[in-house]
């Protein structure tokens, strides 16, 4: 099977503009989490949350809301098109952000974060569905890599923006900025994005049709197993996000340098995504991602072993963590593309089911890793190696024990 492009479905945008728009929408979730990381301590103190580990629930609640809502936005976008559910989700997200800026209690904060995540689910599910509407095969992997590369700029700059905001204002202003970002996205979607769903692929929004779509997704061996592999590996990333402030500030005493180091780690994934976009059409998704998964497993094993032996000095921690994050940037876009590739005829439902499994699975695993924080980086390193080993098992089962074998012909 070769790479494909549905030029008729491409909106009235250049390829560069299309990728930038998809990345801007995908970045909604990153900005919702990363911009507030420097303010977690202030938020917890303001709302009377004494335990540092309990403050992580602000992130977990958002991820759980996003995971659950993906089950609905996919089928909705298969029935009504991509644009109306996307706009509805962004509107819910913006309203919740404004409400959070005025929240009086931690319990209400968690409820609103869950609802905000539910609104943001539209950007995750529908963005991937739009890319699948327009591209297939290795071109989809290439475009997803470029989307991920631009998307990763947000984690690079968001913590610094959050740090700047709390330097001049209270933490509430962070969520005002988040709401304005959503309003900007609504304006762009209204003015620039066309409908990409082929009318022939619209599906009725009934329980039987939705369950049928779910069955198609869950009974496709490659899609299911690559989704499970992505889910557990995402758990490592969510585990780091949950405990990043505690590890980098609490363990390594970085203080105001925290956003800069966090940005450096995110940059490694951006560089990897760009590298993947340059190489994937030549070498294929499987050889690149399988090699990266093996590298991820090896790097996290070395990191865990060294951490168990003695507390790692900061330079060693940076080298080993950057090594794992570079591999992650090669794994994620390819695994997502391979999971979506066989399911173009039910792209919305497929994206919702796969996104639900990845987000819920990853957030639960990430919460477990984050809650295991004990004042050292050892639980984080152990969590990374554990999920890497489990992900490798899923991929071996998916490929019947044969790694690195491409399924698509190289681009001409």
UniProtKB/TrEMBL annotation:
It is found in: Cell inner membrane; Cell membrane. Residues 18-401 form the Major facilitator superfamily (MFS) profile domain. It holds the Pfam family MFS_1. The keyword tRNA processing does not apply. The chain crosses the membrane at residues 18-37, 57-74, 86-108, 143-166, 172-193, 224-244, 256-275, 287-306, 312-331, 343-369, 381-398. Keywords: Cell inner membrane, Cell membrane, Membrane, Transmembrane, Transmembrane helix, Transport. PANTHER family: MAJOR FACILITATOR SUPERFAMILY, POLYAMINE TRANSPORTER 2-RELATED. NCBIfam families: efflux_Bcr_CflA. This is Bcr/CflA family efflux transporter. It comes from Ensifer adhaerens.
